[in-house]
Amino acid sequence: MAESLNTETSQSILSYSLWMAKTVDYLESYLQVPFYHLVVELLLVLWIVRLLTRKSYNPKESKLELTKEEEDRLINDWQPEPLIPDTSTLPDYTKQLKVIDGKPSYRINIDGNDCLNLCTMNLLGFVGSPKVEKIAIDTLKKYGVGTCGPRGFYGTIDVHLNLEKKIANFLDVEDAILYSYGFSTISSAIPAYSKRTDVIFCDKGVNFAIQTGIVASRSKIYWFNHNDMEDLEKKLKEQQEKDKKNPKKAVVTRRFLVVEGIYTNYGDIVPLPKLVELKNEFKVRLFIDETMSFGVLGNHGKGVTEHYGIPLSEVDLIAVSLEASLGSVGGFCAGSSFVVDHQRLSGQGYCFSASLPPLLSVAAETGIKLMEEDIGMFKNLQDNSKFMREELKGMSPFLVKGADISPIIHLRLNNSYDHLTRDEEETLLQKFVDKCIEAGVGLTVSRYLNDLELHIPKASIRVTVNVNLTQEDMKSSSTTMKEIASHVFTL
Which domain holds residue 98? Predict the structure, then answer.
């Protein structure tokens, strides 16, 4: 009996299996697709039906209902923050400010002390220039103070276009774009081109404006050691290897190299020939902030490209603040037309800031005209920089930092003071600066945003040389500084 049942069951299973096999063969032959493909499609259809028919999530249904007592307790426990924070515990920064009275030109009045100006960026002496002042006053009478509107919304005046054309002709480039604020020039230009999927190689010694632009771009950042071309080449090769491993991503990834002509925080000059060589080898776009090199380097003051005899076409974009050598306000970017035009729609500092006051545009244009009329001023400035640097050498306990022809000189404490904290160093340097101001020499301690800047240099005193200084000025000021240093710095 059991054997007959087992035989019948086996035959049934075999018959069912044969039927399934014939059915599968029929479906595959009729539909011309594998059976497993049908199963997958059936599962997908069932999943779609489930998604369409299931009940949607309603956040109100999951809302936690509080009792009246719980609500009252939460309200009583809540302590609102004051609209104005308590400032009684904060230091009085107004006591630390150095108040300027009058024009910060050849001489400067600091807290009532008449000083030789070695602290502001009036490199070519245009602040206080009678020619610049006269034309700025005439422009003020004609155009007023400002437009109160961005360039694209009734903020463009003919003097803006004249200045952009003047800059382009002076640098022998296709186009230039004018910004209303020096800081926003490079910080707007970088994120206008470099986006989240791109790569930026940047020197650790760049100024805060560049750092801000790099952070705003949200790109992948590779910091290389200050002016270290070997470290830069190493990082470029590492990126090259990554590109080889993922060629599809490499095709859509743009690579940028961002540096300064003369580094504000160090006073040295970028090794541009090597940079151009690496730029061409690894196919990166080169951006240079020439705020401190424009009006300083080269026989005509055109910057670091003229200094090295390299065509400006080798640089994709240069950015310059008008607030240094030209003694005005604002900034500009210059380069090819298709590069510059992109910023007119993508440069946030250009699109959303009120346009530059006309008098400042004309003041900057007048400054460029004076640079063209007297090209000897650049050699004078470079000679003054060399002379001042030689006069400061040997002043204990300082190390004199920066390139010979750079008007930016940093005095940093030597290794004997490495045991001091940064605050202690700055306090000691400020004491020295205060004594110098009382003695008629205007200096400043280099200031940084310690909580925001990414790579802060060692504390220093910044000495800024300008074209109007005489050798007697530099000799007497350096002698005064040495005498004060001998009294202030005692280990």
Answer: 93-119+375-488
Based on the fold, state whether residues 201 and 320 are members of the same structural domain: yes
Q: Cα(162)–Cα(165) distance, rounded to whole angstroms? A: 5
Q: Which DSSP symbol is given to 151?
A: I
The per-residue DSSP string of 195-251 comes to -TT-EEEEETT--HHHHHHHHHHT-EEEEE-TT-HHHHHHHHHHHHHHHHH-HHHHH
Q: Which amino acid is at 87?
A: T
Place of tokens 């399934």: 20
CATH of the domain at 277: 3.40.640.10
Three-class SS of residue 396?
coil
- Please tell me the distance from the alpha carbon of residue 305 to that of residue 311, in angstroms, as a whole number: 6
Contacts for 269 with CB less than 8 Å, ≥ 6 apart: 261, 262, 263, 293, 297, 304, 307, 403, 405, 406
Same domain, 228 and 308: yes
Angle between helices 358-373 and 130-143 (to 10 degrees): 150
| Within-domain flag for 145 | yes
Q: Report the C-alpha gap between 364 and 327 in whole angstroms.
A: 7
Residue 125: which of 133, 113, 135 has the closest Cα? 133
CA–CA distances in Å: residue 173 to residues 156, 177, 251, 317: 21, 12, 29, 10
Q: How far is CA 84 from CA 90, 94, 309, in A?
A: 13, 18, 55
What's the structural domain count of the chain? Answer: 2
Same domain, 97 and 145: no
The per-residue pLDDT string of the chain (491 residues; one tens digit each, 9 = 90 and over) reads 555 545 666 667 667 666 666 666 666 665 666 767 767 877 888 888 888 887 665 655 555 677 888 888 888 888 888 877 776 665 655 556 888 888 888 899 999 999 999 999 999 999 988 999 999 999 999 999 888 888 888 889 999 999 999 999 999 999 999 999 999 999 999 999 998 889 999 999 999 999 999 999 999 999 999 999 999 999 999 999 998 888 888 888 899 999 999 999 999 999 999 999 999 999 999 999 999 999 999 999 999 999 999 999 899 999 999 999 998 999 999 999 988 999 998 888 888 888 999 999 999 999 999 999 999 999 999 999 999 999 998 898 999 999 999 999 999 999 888 888 998 999 999 999 999 999 999 999 998 988 888 899 999 999 999 999 999 999 999 999 999 998 888 75
Residue 24 lies in a domain: no
* Residue at 70 is within a domain: no
Asked if residue 56 belongs to a domain, the reply is no
State whether 244 and 388 are in the same domain.
no
